[in-house]
Amino acid sequence: MLNLKPSSDSDRRTLNFLEKNPSLSQCLLDDCGPNLSQVATIIEPVLNASSRCEVSSFYIQAVSTGRTAFLTTNLPDDRATQVTSVGASWLIGRNSTCAISIKSSSISRCHAVIGHCPDRGFYIMDVGSSNGTFLNGRRLPALEQRLLNDGDLVELSYTRFEFFISGFGVHKPICQETQVG
Which value, in Å, is the radius of gyration of the alpha carbons in the chain? Predict the structure, then answer.
């Protein structure tokens, strides 16, 4: 499927990532074209997300190409990267059916949602968890969407992670307290 020729180390790492994630590969190639270097500009931040962590060893990296959005994370295993399916929202919780499943008794079965609106950006919403969702130290009211910024600190109960955003046409919210209506 991937008849792309790498011309740099970045291209080789990108090609390796695409081969490990075939369903994502087709979406990225559709959005970026068959230019491996252009796809690499999307994938490089994903491959380097853990090195951006300053406060926690865990992260969620949100990626948008304008038409395609997905998340990568090292939750719950900081030694491996998990890639979600392409979508517009991803449930996080203890339940194994969640897009990001965290096996911790302090995390609710269905704890929070990260979503993406192409015209507004990425947001987070607590879905009625027992122990709360916090954005930059402030507890979020249940069912209220808050826009996320690159570098935000998110806490789901006692689990802390940094949130990063990359990609093409990425909307960068100006105000952290903006509610998504």
Answer: 16
